[in-house]
Amino acid sequence: MKLVVVSAGLSVPSSTRLLGDRLAAAVGSRVDDLELEVVELRDLAVEIAHNFTSGFPGRKLAAAIESVTSADGLIVVTPVFSASYSGLFKSFFDVIDKDALAGMPVLIAATGGTGRHSLVLDHALRPLFAHLRAVVVPTGVYAASEDWGADGLDGRVQRAAGELAGQMLGRPAKRAAEPEVVPFEEQLAALRPAG
Hints:
By secondary structure, the chain is α/β, with parallel strands linked by helices. Helices cover 41% and strands 19% of the residues.
């Protein structure tokens, strides 16, 4: 099986790439014989711009598009700029044919300087990939600066990776146990004094 990580990080080293690597490792621990490829959009920026003006991808961009569209699953990670995904990230998915990701299992993730931008997952990334008719796993992963090394990030990484691995292997994600529902009348009766 082939897993492709699309990283829109701009710096080296990049927290965006680091998050993509952690997610890929977690998926790899669940899928045997996983072939992993990383597409660094930073290296394709000029070819992406030329594709818009010429209508044709360059050699490296064409190879990246082929990798992404032939994958069994995708992990897409972007830094947050102006409360949304980066322009480079959006431009890459704009040059891919609109039907190429239909049915593709996708794990969405983002990095940012503060937790205040975590809604980018549900207000920007999830709608983009829903429009492309990809199958976005329920758990998205957002990592703010303070999340690195803190409790909670690894749990989100593991949960999202399990969901993506399940989609790639054709198994539905395990559902959490349903909480017991106690009717309100019974709850109220339990609060009344006996006697």
